[in-house]
Design a protein that fits this description.
It is an enzyme of class 5 (isomerase). With 368 residues, this protein is of the alpha/beta class. It is built from 15 helices and 13 strands. It binds uridine-5'-diphosphate.
């Protein structure tokens, strides 16, 4: 069996890394194709997880529309599929890269396996374009790796054949375990944020990058954070996404506030340190919502809908949208309470998703 793994963005690299590790462990031939959708943010993740792309598309150009990105991925994928000649291709999540590579593979009659299948909002606008991307991938894929019962139920509801769906958990839990093992005893001694580490202030971690929040939504979120920073008992750390639609308004509203630390995107070990140490997370990130339960850190999700309702139902996440007063009210609740979420069980599995995925890939290739 020859597997081709498609990786476009930072979260895809983080969530595909455990699958790559497992394939390597079992001596199964695989190669990695990177579309480089978020190039600068991808490189440190590849280095940290000790994986490297074999095929690089380098598709990004300034001021590209989604359609331009899509057409470049589609034609480049054609070339790489010819070169790699895989028996099966693995895509992850709901990015433009995953969608167009799935379509390219379909056109070449190469089976597609979808990691993190079945997430839905059933609202085309939320998030745009991810909801439609993942529905398209579900129409194309031959094997669907659902992370949760809810995702599995969505696929069944859409008449995806039951015998093509596997409930495996989310590989993000595997990644976190691998990463923490690698960090080892150093995990608490990392000098990333020396002053913060010794501070007894409450740490608030903020991230955000969704297209649905560009413009007015992001401005409201920034205003809420600005007001939150007036509390002298908080230190706010905000690794700012490199997209200019995020970077520019964030720096304009939140620059030069003594307890708001606007920093470059951080490496994965630093992110783990922040997730662990934070009293509260404010984010629209899908991956961070899935990571929060591993650390039992509560999260305000700056969206009005979510395809990851498991975290909300577990009691760890609250959907706050982008309304400034709602964000402030909910943040205040968590910052002023002595909560304990240690009893919450992780809806994303036990860290064995990659082992299950590779088992299933082997079975699939034998059946073919
Ligand atoms: N992440 C990171 N450094 C950062 C911000 C995020 O390592 O500065 C990680 C985060 O822990 C999670 C993933 O990147 O695993 C999420 O990426 P992002 O929020 O860009 O995408 P999403 O998950 O929303 O698609």
């Amino acid at each position: 069996m020859k597997v081709l793994i498609c990786i476009g963005t930072r979260p895809e690299a983080i969530k595909m890394a455990p699958v790559c590790h497992e394939l390597k462990k079992r001596n199964i031939q695989f190669s990695i194709m990177s579309t480089g959708q978020h190039r600068e943010m991808l490189a440190p993740i590849f280095d940290f997880f000790q994986i490297q792309p074999d095929h690089d598309m380098e598709i990004m150009q300034a001021e590209q529309s989604l359609n331009m990105i899509s057409s470049r991925i589609l034609s480049e994928a054609d070339r790489i599929l010819e070169l790699a000649m895989p028996h099966i291709i693995l895509v992850q999540g709901d990015t433009t890269s995953a969608t167009l590579v799935s379509l390219a593979a379909f056109n070449k009659k190469i089976p597609v396996a979808h990691v993190e299948a079945g997430l839905r909002t059933y609202n085309k606008a939320a998030p745009y374009p991810e909801e439609v991307n993942r529905q398209i991938i579900s129409r194309i894929a031959d094997l669907h790796f659902a992370p949760t019962q809810k995702a599995l139920a969505n696929l069944l509801k859409e008449n995806i054949p039951e015998n093509s769906i596997r409930l495996v958990g989310n590989t993000i839990v595997d990644s976190l375990e691998w990463a923490q093992k690698k960090m080892g005893a150093k995990a608490n001694a990392y000098g990333f944020f020396k002053d913060l580490f010794h501070s007894n202030k409450k740490l608030v971690l903020v991230t955000g990058h969704r297209r649905e929040n560009f413009g007015e939504g992001l401005l409201q979120i920034c205003e809420a954070i600005k007001q939150l920073s007036r509390r002298e008992d908080v230190e706010i750390v905000y690794p700012v996404h490199l997209n200019p639609n995020v970077k520019e308004p964030v720096h304009e509203i939140l620059g030069n506030i003594h307890n708001v630390h606007l920093i470059q995107p951080v490496g994965y070990p630093e992110m783990i340190w922040l997730l662990k140490r934070a009293k509260l997370i404010i984010s629209d990130s899908g991956g961070i919502q899935e990571e929060a339960p591993s650390f039992k850190t509560p999260i305000l999700v700056t969206r009005s809908v979510s395809e990851r309702m498991e975290v909300v139902e577990a009691g760890l996440a609250t959907l706050v949208g982008t309304d400034k007063s709602k964000i402030l009210m909910e943040a205040g609740k968590y910052l002023d309470a002595d909560y304990n979420f240690s009893d919450i069980s992780n809806p994303y599995g036990d860290g064995n998703a990659a082992v299950k995925i590779v088992d299933e890939l082997l079975l699939f290739s034998q059946e073919k």
